[in-house]
Amino acid sequence: MRLCAWYLYGEKHRGYALNPVANFHLQNGSVMWRINWMGDTSPRGIGASCGMMVNYRYFLEDTARNSAAYLGTKHIKASEQVLALVSQFQQNSKL
């Protein structure tokens, strides 16, 4: 879970999210909301993401601001759950 959070939040390409699905949702103003263990147990989900699934949440009143922040300053808006997992990864990682 921590590694997945880091991949989605911390791994970048030219400053933007490396994952294309994350990049799509963040460009559109979403919040990286929740990472679900075994959220996709289909054969494809297990093979592609070890069954993990992420939820992106759109708060309509904030989408324009979130999108502008992501596109302008490359800031990813994320929930406390995702940020806690990122923090745990950073504390335990040797990267």
TrEMBL record:
One of its GO terms (molecular function) is malonyl-CoA decarboxylase activity. GO terms for cellular component: mitochondrial matrix; peroxisomal matrix. It holds the Pfam family MCD. Transmembrane segments: none annotated. One of its GO terms (biological process) is fatty acid biosynthetic process. Residues 1-58 form the Malonyl-CoA decarboxylase C-terminal domain. PANTHER family: MALONYL-COA DECARBOXYLASE, MITOCHONDRIAL, PTHR28641. This is DCMC protein. It comes from Sapayoa aenigma. The lineage of its organism: Eukaryota, Metazoa, Chordata, Craniata, Vertebrata.
